[in-house]
Design a protein that fits this description.
Elements (H helix, E strand, L loop, with lengths): L4 E4 L1 H5 L9 H13 L4 E6 L12 H8 L10 E5 L3 H10 L3 E7 L2 H8 L3 H17 L3 E7 L3 E2 L3 E2 L2 H13 L4 E6 L6 H14 L8 E5 L6 H10 L4 E4 L19 H10 L8 H15 L6 H18 L7
Parallel strand pairs: 1-2, 1-10, 2-3, 3-4, 4-5, 5-8, 8-9, 9-10
Antiparallel strand pairs: 6-7
Helix pairs in contact: 2-3, 2-11, 3-4, 7-8, 8-9, 11-12
The structure holds magnesium ion (MG).
Length: about 325
């Protein structure tokens, strides 16, 4: 294991809760910048009802602008959430090749997030996934609240595994296991993802991703634990942007910069240029008028400010 795939969720998970509309122009700039900084898997939008998630209303336009040789995606793959058949139609019309369906380990969260029970959502995806596959699309599955739920509390590993197993049985490229409210510790990661990775041994290990939130400061530790268990894809958001509107208190996606710094320090490859990525996140936060949670970016920006101050200080002045 020398290369880790970072699944960049900033343009979707990072922006979807922003109350102030982010312009299409800024979304495009951000997405293209992420590709230039090294992102190869990016979640850029959601084909959901605009009145439900207003920030994602222009996903179709975003795809149109990114299409073709000059769109700026290059070899990167753009993904978008699809909640139902209507969303699939929109995805197909927009030329989306990679979609994600999303459910949860708990009914409480599924009801709040998608207005269905877990069972109802799986019944829907049982037909939606083959439809998407027939259209030549790749499908990713999200299982939210895999460790804990804002409505139901701690989630037993067996309960989450049941949902993950069901998605894996269908023709999905990958299932992303989500700690939506950031309650897991590495021990919890082992209890759930240990048995899971035993089931998907070898190349099939690519079928599992970890999506950790840093709400209680455990996201990096959990990511590291997932790596130890054989996971090679981790979800993160540039600058640490985003959370989830239906998970109270769930601020803080794991920041891509913090993850990249850790992985590069361990001698693992990600393909990301950390300077380019940090520069991008700082500018994006300026455009959004929103503070970043990435610890790496904070240290990096402080270092840059010190260097700039030293450069502009008059020569020969008192220390
Ligand atoms: Mg997230």
């Amino acid at each position: 294991m020398s290369r880790i795939t970072i699944f960049e969720v900033g343009p979707r998970d990072g922006l979807q809760n922003e109350k102030q509309p982010v312009s299409l122009e800024d979304k495009l700039w951000f997405t293209r910048g992420l590709v230039q900084a090294g992102a190869r898997e990016l979640e850029i939008g959601a084909f959901v009802r605009a009145e439900r998630v207003p920030q994602m209303a222009d996903t179709d336009a975003l795809y149109a602008a990114l299409a073709g040789k000059t769109g700026g995606l290059g070899k990167a793959r753009a993904w978008a959430l699809v909640p139902n058949e209507k969303g699939l139609e929109r995805a197909a019309a927009a030329g989306a090749r990679n979609i994600a369906v999303f459910t949860a380990a708990t009914d409480g969260f599924a009801n709040a997030n998608i207005g269905m029970t877990v069972r109802e959502s799986l019944a829907l995806y049982k037909t939606l996934i083959p439809q998407a596959r027939k259209l030549g699309m790749r499908v990713r599955g999200y299982v939210s609240t895999a460790f804990g739920c804002p409505y139901e509390g701690k989630v037993a590993p067996a309960k989450a595994l049941k949902v993950i197993d069901q998605l894996l049985k269908w023709d999905v490229e990958q299932v992303s296991v989500g700690d939506t409210i950031g309650v897991a510790t590495p021990g919890d990661v082992t209890k759930l993802m240990g048995p899971l990775m035993k089931r998907v041994r070898g190349k099939a290990a690519l079928k599992v991703a970890g999506h950790f939130h840093d709400t209680r400061g455990t996201a990096l530790a959990n990511a590291l634990q997932a790596l130890e268990l054989g996971v090679t894809t981790l979800d993160s958001s540039a600058g640490g942007l985003g959370g989830c509107p239906y998970a109270p208190g769930a601020t803080g996606n794991l920041a891509t910069e913090d993850l990249v710094y850790l992985l590069h320090g361990m001698g693992l490859k990600t393909g990301f240029d950390l300077d380019a990525l940090s520069t991008l996140s700082v500018e994006m936060s300026r455009r959004m008028n929103r503070a970043l949670t990435s610890r790496y970016v904070a240290a990096w920006a402080a270092g840059r400010a010190r260097a700039a101050a030293a450069k502009s200080a008059p020569k020969g002045s008192a220390p």
